[in-house]
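Slack export, channel: ligand-projects

TW: morning all. Re-posting the request from yesterday since it got buried. We need the structure predicted with the small molecule present, not the apo form. The ligand is pyridoxal-5'-phosphate; the SMILES is in the block with the sequence. No rush, but it would help planning for next week.
GE: picking it up
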Amino acid sequence: MKDHPPSPSVNLRPSLRTLEPSPVLAASETTDILRAQGTPVAKLALSQSPFPVPDSLVQALRQAAPIKSYAPVQGLLPLREKIAAYLKRRFQVERSPEDVLIGPGSKELCFLLSLAHEGPLIVPTPCWSSIIPQARILHKPLFLIHTTREDQFMLRPDTLSNTLCSTDLRGAILYLNSPSNPCGLTYSKEELEAFAELARAHDLLILSDESYAELHHKGQHLSIAPFCPERTLVLTGLSKWVGAGGWRLGYLSIPPDLHPLRRAMVALASQTFTATSTPIQWAAISAFEESAEIENYLMNVRRVLSALGRLVARRIQAHGATCPQPHGGLHVFIDWSAFPRPLPFSTGQALCSHLLHKARIALSPGIAFGRPTQELSARLSYVDFDGTRALSAVQVIPREQPIDETFLRRHCGPTLEALDRLLDWMRELQGE
Ligand SMILES: Cc1ncc(COP(=O)(O)O)c(C=O)c1O
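GE: finished. pasting the full token output, ligand included:
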């Protein structure tokens, strides 16, 4: 018998020793495992679009598949040109193709930005689940602002102003996300103007995460960039609005005044991911073209999401939990802290685990979005249905005709059945 060779040493960086995989992705993977074992769990944990990728993009990807060479680090020029024109046409954001950096998902670009920029990151919570862990990995100073139920879990200008007057955060990046993940809420024009003014007065940069811009339920997204063009970086990608999360394409538009930051990020990109997939970039071009196909697609996607999101929030509120009506996106945020009966859970994670096993509903706990462990909150993504079928069904309903519950029951069934189970559970808790 041979002796065992000595075990290899594993020297993890201290900042990674306690790093857990994203609770959102973990909840989604647990759901997949339970489903594979035959337990019919509703997949409401991950904000993945249920709708198909528009046909023009799929056809363009087929054609581009043989292109095998690396793309330029910053991204294909024809794509960056299309994005610059699109940003101006849709959201009045004035950027040149030179100001745009393409990456393999906006998540990666956000990470590289946090790496390149020296200084704190201000994050209102609840927030997108990766922004805080990324900063922690990089030892970036984080300044969290926990918003309140009274403020509908959104940052308000007064709150930001008070924070900036009591703490010197000059040079920081302020992360803003509208329509927001996890709440689906947006900022008003007045709020955006006030944030822009505060950014100038306190020398902040703004990272405006507009991943759900095109999923504003009324198609009326407002970007903060026109109010503060010299300080606003706009981050988004293909993942949500054309349903292409798995294609992994994001972009960051950086104001020309910040060109040293852009240069540093391009250098980092060149030494890390090299360039984004070339066929995906060619295919993405058609997403940013002015086309009746994409306009129609988005109009119909919004009709379904808006009707479904409103119904879900209304019913949850009527059963005693806090759940602001979403303005956009694919999700709502639920808080049971003011529920008429105290809930028998000490953490949001325990609550979500109970719902998974008792009601077969996978939600993402509030802690994933930077909320306190004890807060009994969770995100519900109303995306468990066949988006291809729902899209073909909504297309034949006249535009002016509202989408009613009968339609939603027929075409978004699994989500509404899960909602019914959630409401039954809430009724049971209230002893009804
Ligand atoms: C608000 C927000 N920002 C960024 C991302 C990252 O998107 P991607 O890396 O797929 O472009 C997500 C994904 O869920 C998100 O919800």
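GE: first-pass observations. The chain has a mean pLDDT of 96. Residues 47, 105-107, 128, 177, 181, 209, 211, 237, 239, 245, 250 surround pyridoxal-5'-phosphate (CB under 6 Å).
TW: perfect, thank you
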